[in-house]
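Quick illustration, no need to memorize.
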Amino acid sequence: MGLPFGGDDATLVPPEALQQIQKLFHELIEHRCGELPAFPEWRQTGMPDLKAHLDEHWDPVTRKPKLEQAEHQYVPVPGMYGGFRFEFQQVGPDPVLVSESWCRVAGGSGQRHRITIQGTELVEEGFV
């Protein structure tokens, strides 16, 4: 579950940080899926919007997920036979997004990444 922070601002994640994390997340998706034939078309409308995710799943007052089981989101990618599950593990001035991605037909294809404003780190692979 995400960790709250004690700032006075009602913003869950500062806009600049959210923009940077979304950019890095989209780059990760492109890296993992860019060669798929359906990806160029899907990219136009299918890329996750992290601001919409926060608005839908997080309470700006308590700075916690609205529903514990709804704090993550899954985005399938056509042709990947899998997709990306992602969630904020921490909001605030130093947000942390964790993404898991996999292809159901390729054993061991699972990868877990930790994304911060400093960059993207592969923290686990080989599952699924």
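The chain has one domain: 15-127.
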